Amino acid sequence: MVSLIAIGGVSVKKLIFIVGACVLWFASASADQYVNGYTKSNGTYVQGYTRTSPNRTTSDNYSTKGNINPYTGQEGTKNEYPQNGNNMYNMYNNSNSKNKY
């Protein structure tokens, strides 16, 4: 039986697996999501829409300034870090936090 060539101590088979896993992870991590339409409690219907996948940043959201929604062509209007402190930095560095170092 012929063995596969090793590159830097890693077989070609393992290398292909690792590259494939990375490609699949990146594709799923950056995928958009479709949100189905729904009816609010006051009877207003909200049409379905496509959004970016949830993550720990607002900089890649279609509604953030500097970004353009590829589905509607609309430019983002929201600040990346709103003044109300509703961002990840303030969430972890809140002066009212019980976890003091």
In short:
The chain is an alpha+beta fold.
Query: Quick check: average pLDDT?
Result: 75
pLDDT under 50 segments (min length 5)?
none
The succession of helices and strands, N to C, reads EEHEEEEH
The shape is: elongated
How many β-strands, per DSSP?
A: 6
User: For the terminal residues, how far apart are their CA atoms?
Assistant: 60 Å
Helix count from the secondary structure assignment: 2
How can the largest sheet be summarized?
Answer: 2 strands, antiparallel
How much strand? 15-25%
Major sheet: arrangement of strands: 1-2
Q: How would you classify the helix and strand content by structural class? A: alpha+beta
Radius of gyration (CA) equals 22 Å
Number of domains: 2
Helical proportion, percent range: 10-25%
Which key features would you list for this structure?
elongated, two-stranded antiparallel sheet, 2 helices, two-stranded antiparallel ribbon, about 100 residues, alpha+beta
Task: Explain this structure.
- This protein has 101 residues and is α+β, with helices and mostly antiparallel strands.
- It is 23% helix and 16% strand.
- Strand 1 (6-7) and strand 2 (10-11) form a beta hairpin.
- The protein is elongated and about 65 Å long.
- 0% of the residues are buried.
- The mean pLDDT is 75.
Which helices and strands, and how do they pair?
Layout: E1 6-7, E2 10-11, H1 12-29, E3 32-35, E4 38-39, E5 45-46, E6 49-52, H2 88-92
Antiparallel strand pairs: 1-2, 3-6, 4-5
